Amino acid sequence: MPEHAMPSRRDVLAAGVGLLAAGGLARAQSTPTGPSTPTAAPKGKAKNVIFMVADGMSMGTFTLADTAITRRTGRGSAWARLWDDPRARRSMMATRSLDSLVTDSAAAGSTWGCGRRINNGEINWHDGEEFEPILVSAHNAGKATGLVTTTRVTHATPASFIANVPDRNMEDEIARQILDRRVDVVLGGGAKYVTPELLAEHPDIRAVRTAEELFTSGKHEGRLVGVFSKGHMSYELDREAIEPHIKDMAMFAIDRLSQHPGGFVMQIEGGRVDHGGHANDFPASLHDMMAFDLTVGAVTQWASRRDDTLVIITTDHGNGNPDLTVYGERSLKGFETLLGAGHTLTWITERVQQGERDAWPTRLHDMIAEHAGVELSEDEVDWAMRPLRGDRVNGFDEANLFVCALGAVMANHFGVAYISHNHTSEHVEATACGPGAETLPTRIDNTFLHGLMTQALGLPVG
Ligand SMILES: [Zn+2]
From ligand 1's centre to the CA of 422, what distance in Å? Predict the structure, then answer.
C-alpha cells in the first residue's frame, strides 16, 4: 500500500482475516495506518529532543482538562493553543501492541524507545532479543539524558526510554539499568527500587529526596537523582509540599540538561493521568492532566525561544474513555462539582478502608461529602459497596469492581462516566514542534515517533 494512501475496505477485511488466520496480531503490522519511518527527515537538525507523555489520556480527559483551563484562564490549554502555531504538526496515532489491540505502557513506550512493536509487558525486548533504547543511543552519541515522571521512575513509560527487560515488573533491574546507563537527571517516585544501597554504588550521583533539597541542590555538576516518594508520587490534587510539581521538575531538568554542550534527550511523563483512569477517579486524572498542561506550556515556551529543540507531546493509549455525558444544567452543575473536589476519590477510599469494615458505608458517605463536596444517597452508597460483597453492578464483567461502582454513582454528580477501568484502543493525538516536526504525517503508527526523533537528532539508525 503506498504511503499516505487510505486503506480500502478490501485491505481492512484482509487484515481482519489475517488476524484470525495467523492466530495472533503480528500480522496486523503489515497494515500500518501510515508510513512506518520518516521518509525525508532532515538529519541532525535537532540538538535536543523533549518527549512529553500524558499517560493513559483518553480524548475525554483532554477535553475536560481543556474546558477547565479555559474556564479558569479564558484561554485554552497550552497543548491545544500550540496547534495555532503554523510550525506545529499534528497526527492521529494508532497504539496497538504486537499481541494486543489494547496496548499497555511497556509495549507502547517501547515503540518510541526502540521503534519496534512488541508484546504487552515487554520493554525493548522480544523473544530473547534486545533493542537499543533511545536514551542509550543518545548517551553514546554524546548527549545528556533525562527522565522526569510522576510515577515510580522504574515504571513502564520512563523505563521504555532506557531499559531492556522481558517483564516491566522487574523494577529492581530497571533501577539498576537507569543508573548503570548513566541517565544524567532522574526525577520522580520510586525510592522503593532506587534504594540508598543502589545509589551508594554510584558515588558520583547527587541524590535528593524532597522538593526543597532539589531546588537548593545548587550548581552540582554530575548526575542527579531525585526520588520523592516510596512508590508513585501523589496525585496533583493530593500532593504535599515535600513533593515537587511536575512542571518544576521538568524545568529544573531542562535547565541542567541544556548546559550540556552536546545537547540532550529527555522524557517527561504525567504518569498518573492513567492511574486516575484505572481508578475511575476523574478528579485525579483532571488535575494531573492540568498539571501536565502547565508543563507543556513551560516547555514549549522554553523551546520556542530557540530553533534546536524538537518537542513531541502525546499519550501512549486511552484509559476508560471518560467524558461528561449528561445534558443542559446537569452538565454545567456536574462540571462545577467536579472542579470543587478537594481530594481524589482514591485518597478518600484509602482512608475509608482504614476503618472498621462495618463502618465503611457511613465513612464513605461522610468523607465523600467532606472532601468531594457530594452528598451520596443511601442507595448510591449501597450501590457503590456491592462489588465488595461479590454482587454484580454491571453487565460488563470488566466493570464489576468497587472503583467502577463508585465511579458510576459519582457520575450522577460529576456527569462524567467511564466505560471500564482498562486502557482503550482509541487512536490518540501526537503533536510535534521544532526541527524535524515538519516530517510528521497526519496519521501514524506509534513506532513512527522513534524514527522521527533519531533522524531529527542524526542518531545512527538501530
Ligand atoms: Zn495503565
Answer: 7
Q: 396: which residues sit within 8 A by CB, 6+ positions away?
A: 419, 420
In whole angstroms, what separates CA 411 from the centre of its chain? 24
Q: Where in the chain is the domain with CATH 3.40.720.10?
A: 34-321+422-457
> Which residues fall within 8 angstroms of residue 366, CB to CB, at 6 or more apart?
none
As its CATH architecture, domain 34-321+422-457 has 3-Layer(aba) Sandwich (3.40)
**Residue-wise pLDDT tens digits, 209-246:** 999 999 998 766 789 999 999 999 999 999 999 999 99
Sequence-ordered strand ranges (E) for 293-400? 309-314, 318-319, 323-324
* Helix, strand or coil, per DSSP, at residue 440: coil
Q: How far is the CA of 442 from the centre of ligand 1 (A)?
A: 26
The CA 109 to ligand 1 mean position distance, Å, reads 12
Task: Judge if pTM exceeds 0.85.
Answer: yes
Cell 486502557, located at residue? 423
**Run of H or E residues at 206:** strand 206-208
Q: Are 456 and 436 in contact (CB under 8 A)?
A: yes
Return residues with CB closer than 5 A to ligand 1 (ion): 56, 274
pLDDT tens, residue by residue, 70-113: 999 999 999 999 999 998 999 999 999 999 999 999 999 999 99
Q: How remote is the CA of residue 137 from the centroid of ligand 1, in Å?
A: 27
Measured CA to CA, the distance from residue 240 to residue 233 in angstroms comes to: 10
Find the Cα–Cα–Cα–Cα dihedral 52, 57, 60, 65, rounded to 10°.
-50
